[in-house]
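cron nightly-structures :: item 1 of 1
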Amino acid sequence: MKEFLSKVWRFIWKTVLWFFGLSILTVIIYRWIPVPVTPLMIIRCVEQKIDGKALRLKKDWEPLENISRNLQLAVVCSEDQHFIDHSGFDFEAIDKAIKYNEHHKRKRGASTISQQTAKNVFLWSGRSWVRKGFEVYFTFLIECLWSKERIMEVYLNVIEMGDGVYGAQATSNYFFHKDASNLSKGEAALIAAVLPNPRRFSVARPTGYILKRQGWIIHQMALWGGPIQFEEPEEKDSRKKK
């Protein structure tokens, strides 16, 4: 029995070491090379086949300089206005979400762009404490090993933006028939408005709620006063927050 427990312990220890080694190595590799595919993309393809739908996987990697600054600003204003300042987690937003959720049926999230990037690149969809734990771990890793520019670049290239459509370039081509570099403020705001639930809402057929949210995002972009400054962020205390 003692020998068996010893073997089990060695197996667990080796598994943990392999996990940490491979995960850190993967994050380091993705610091420089495009992410070829994500677990979510694979899951969605399997779901399409199960549902008898035609397989659709549209994705075109583009460096950040080829993605409209309007879209970069729109997603920050919409999803994570403290993106430049925080280290992966917005504790102020988390505290507000907890207090809000205590008194409302419809729950509010507080995931940052860094957390969403970690989730989309390395993890599966769904909600559980196990997945959340891995999300925290990978968010910590990418914040330590990637720059904010790289996090934004990966986020805008892998995020789900429609049924089988991923990333800024594929989305821009599919819905607006133009490159991501040419997205207008209105188009960028519309994409950002749909991001929280791209399977329920559509860029092609925006509901009244989405159009209202688009207008709010455009207003936030105007208050921001210019493109995202990654290297030397200015104080944003005077800018409107969520």
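cron nightly-structures :: done
The beta strands are 58-59, 160-162, 165-166.
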